[in-house]
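Quick check before the chapter quiz. The format below is the same one you will see on the exam, so make sure you can read both the input and the output lines.
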Amino acid sequence: MFNWIFSCLYFFLPAYFVNMAPPFAKRSGAFKFLYRPIDKGKKFKGKPILGSHKTWKGIIAGLFVGILMVFFQGWLYENFLFIQKISLIDYSKINLFWFGILISGGALCGDILFAFLKRRLGKEPGAKWLPFDQINYVIGAAIFLTPYLWNISNINNFWFQLWTTLLTLTFILHIIFNRLGYLLKIHRAKW
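Here is the expected output.
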């Protein structure tokens, strides 16, 4: 069971980095011209479409970091037998760029979709919305990746188990790390 959990976490590592990239990009101060809201500040039925915190800088940072992580995983796969043993997919047989786009884009689209839904419910950015604030990017990545995974590996035999495991683990890990971030004054919300 530990091997399965570790393999799932390793598989999803790029999406975890994608999810962390926008807040770090915001704090970096670089590329300030990209710090523009995706929704351009527009409203839908009197409420922000997404909110000012969903920016082009975050999208580009997330895509870049996610694709970079997939290429790093590909390099690790080629050079370390241990990585080959724990990997759920054969990185030497996939298009790393395309896989990076799918996992990164899916994670980002999941986050954006749930930000849109959260605004429709009248919830402000940072307001508690369990469990969706914790797993939105897993849902997005699952939607984007599952059809691709069916064509590239034996993952189609256990895709439901993979996504169920990742939803559960991500929910738990997200709360733990956000609590730590809150205690260390890195994150504004406990959840």
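If your answer matched, good. The CA atoms of residues 18 and 64 lie 8 Å apart.
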